[in-house]
Amino acid sequence: MDGVLLIHGLGGTPLELGGLPKQLEQAGFKTYAMTLPGHGTRAEHLSTVVMEDWLSAVQTAYQEVAKKHQTVHVVGMCMGALLACELAKEQAQKLPQSKNHFGKLVMLAPTVFLDGWGMPWYHWLRHLHYVIPLLRGNYRIPEDEPYGIKNVRLRAIVKKRFIRGDAFHYGWVPLQSIWQLDRLRGRVLKGLSRVTADALVVHAREDEFSSLRSAYALQKGMGAPRTRVVVLENSYHMICVDDDRELLAAQVLAFLHGENPHVNTAANL
Hints:
Elements: E1 3-7, H1 20-26, E2 30-33, H2 51-66, E3 71-77, H3 79-94, E4 101-108, H4 126-129, H5 133-138, E5 140-142, H6 152-164, E6 172-174, H7 175-188, E7 199-204, H8 213-222, E8 227-232, H9 245-256
């Protein structure tokens, strides 16, 4: 049985992966959903967390899963997709010395570029604030509508959960975390050719945080023959819980089972 390491996004928890873990289990995989440092408690705890903490936690989690499975696939959502990509680079360097095999890489809604339609025009000004440590820790970036969800009914439910302060996702993150995400984005774009694993990128055309440019940058950098891109037409950023969730699960399962998902190419978009 293959293992699957699941990595959530910034400010989230494994809950943002929706029913995907259960569907993977039903398909014969053993899943391991990790919680990144600074997450699953209070948003304030992110104020002292740096990119290296997340990378180290992912590496440790992978090593633990690799003790139990000869082949480990890695699935990352949002920032988790970027962390999964960095892990793939690292594991590629260890082959063929490693007894375990890094399986396939699945990147869901990767935020390589923060250029989606929902980003405010002034968001680039955040870089000016990074030089002031006090601002990085205390300035809050709130979650706001549409909360990454196109489905109106589901969005209303999520909004109520935010109001209640449910722990499934933080209602805000400190600017410090966005700075660390920006650092990670820059790191991912370097050395993409070192990723040797077969990869699947699933991205919504209407992702409000990150446009399809992210998906095709990854495909180009890692090599089109090894990297497939699937474009979802009826979701925003939170693709694991939005209207295309069943299609997404089907594509991920097909990919991990060695089948060919329906692939969108830049030529027909």
